[in-house]
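QA checklist item 7 of 12: single-chain prediction sanity check.
[x] sequence parsed
[x] length recorded as 502
[x] structure emitted
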Amino acid sequence: MSFAIVAEALLGVYRGHVGAGEVDQMPSPARLHAGLLCAAAQGVRAVADGDGLQPCDADRDALRWLEENPPDGITVPDTLSNDSAAVAYRREGLIVKEGAKSLGEKLIGKPAVGGVAVNGRFAWTWEQSPPDSVVAALVELCAEVPYLGTSESPVRLSVEADWETEPTHLLDRDADLFTGRGLDLAVAATGRVDALEAAYRAAGVAPRSASDAHAVSEKTLRPPVVTAGTGIGRYVPRDPPPAPTPWASVHVLTIDRPVPPEQRVRSAVAVHRALISRIGDGAPAILTGVYESGVRQPSNRCAIHFLPESRLAVLLPREMSDVDLAMVEAAVARLREIRTSAGKLRVVGAPRVFSADQFWPEPAAGTERWWRTDPVAVPDCRPPRGGRWSLADAAALSVAFVWRDEIGAPGRGDAHYRGLAAAASERGVRVHSAVRVMDGDVGRYVHNYNKSAVIQPYRAMLSLGALTGPRTLAAIGQSRHLGGGLLMPVDLPVDIARRLAR
């Protein structure tokens, strides 16, 4: 639960403008602060200030608390912006010279229907509640705010001390405002109350007679936009819960020697055959990869990879039935020796079992975790027709294939492949580099392939966004089940990672 100020658009529309008159998509924390200040200075709680009014001390304290504590989160409901080009014209009583001698009344054109339809409520939330005196003042002030934005968007503001809805966006206090994603919103900062009051007093000073004289052509004078006492806050979308890991558990065996990168696929095939041999007749399809016609195949099968420090990992997918799991685990426990084309591999000791989503160490403090393919990855399919397609697109598609049950994309064939790659990007997958490996013996990187097909192994550096956690063991590409496309963690200092990501 958190403390929140909640805004309900009574007509289902929010209208406001920013910059040079562009439609404002949502009320910023600075706009909320301004609305509360207006209520404090002109509402029933205001106190006398000569011939005018000013906020009382309690309200000033509440507004200054907001200056020092920008919202930790924001809830943005579903919205639909109407940026219609329709213009409404009206006479404002201004005189304009239309010809050599004639004077006329100026006709003013302004946007007619610009606004944002709102389905739900906006909320500004704080993880820690303010002092009781500030809460009491905000409760009273919220009831006095008639609208946010223009007067055409009436609003009902309220304070919720036990707000249970999770915010859709969170404040990133360390954001680089030149890169990354999120909402860059104006927030009130120290001195905002003083700046707005000074501008209000200046606007109320009667003009001198010389400057107030009649002009042949007149124009609308807009009040200056007061920017003093404001800053910019980056509110980033709250990441959805990570998708379930493709593989649930990892059985790790120690072997008597490391396996060079160029031998890993062929050695993994040898381990695969050894496991099937240990089970004998009835080996499950999720291990063999052989399914009967018409049977839906899972996104991932049992996978075999070689890790640093002379380790062999057998990854078991979460789609496995209890019976299949028991058979494969028993076969892994009985592995003692594997005959490969490069000689024998001997297993030392019993397997150790790890959770696949807790396999790698936590990223070091102040770093961002990226991933590199080890040794290489191979695209899962030919490039789709109908437009440009790069190795980076192929890598994004390979990631989507691993998590395809969670990502999903409509369509079939080439359109489906492009949709999967785009959906992976929407989940935060970024391919920072992808370089083709020029090697005549591509057979070392794939096991079973069409001899007429063009195999394009590549090395890539990528980040997986919100798709999975930083400790997950996974692999991508055509050889992900047999020794290829393993994703090894690479921790980069945050400033370097953000600079490279540009």
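[x] summary fact logged: The chain has a mean pLDDT of 87.
[ ] second reviewer sign-off
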